[in-house]
């Protein structure tokens, strides 16, 4: 019952507003159009203030862009890496594979030269 009273009240207010707009349009057209333009301008200004102050996200700084790029690269790098899989893969390696040892190059020779003599650089 209470809800019907509220909806009836809203319909009455909207009807009176329409009657006022139509009568204003026919009796004082220039003033009516001026008021409409002023209302639209004020509404646009209020919307712009609300948008730029509250809704718009602040522009990301150059440092933030670099950080986001680094995070993205890091996620891409470590995306497929799981600790459980690494252990399983290391256990599956065949123990029979001989490890290649680095050989010393036979054509290189250490020259024992003037190791004990050092230049006194301060005297130069």
From TrEMBL:
Mind telling me which InterPro entries this protein's record contains?
A: SA1362/YqhP-like
Q: Domain of life of the organism in this record?
A: Bacteria
Q: Membrane: is it a keyword of this entry?
A: yes
The UniProt regions of compositional bias labelled Basic and acidic residues, in chain numbering, are: 109-124
Skewed-composition ranges (Basic residues): 91-107
Keywords, A to Z, come to: Membrane, Transmembrane, Transmembrane helix
Which parts of the chain span the membrane according to its record?
Answer: 7-26, 32-54
Region (Disordered), start-end ranges: 71-124
Q: Which NCBIfam families match?
A: SA1362_fam
> What's the name of the protein?
Uncharacterized protein
Q: Which organism is it from?
A: Virgibacillus indicus
């Amino acid at each position: 019952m209470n809800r019907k009273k509220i909806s009836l009240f809203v319909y009455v207010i909207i009807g009176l507003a329409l009657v006022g707009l139509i009568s204003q349009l026919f009796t004082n057209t220039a003033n009516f159009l001026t008021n409409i333009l002023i209302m639209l301008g004020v509404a646009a200004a209020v919307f712009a203030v609300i948008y730029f102050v509250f809704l718009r996200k602040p522009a990301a700084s150059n440092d933030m862009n670099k950080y986001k790029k680094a995070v993205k690269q890091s996620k891409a790098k470590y995306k497929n890496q799981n600790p459980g899989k690494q252990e399983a893969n290391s256990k599956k390696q065949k123990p029979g594979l001989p490890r290649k040892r680095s050989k010393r190059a036979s054509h290189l020779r250490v020259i024992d030269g003037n190791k004990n003599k050092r230049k006194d650089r301060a005297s130069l």
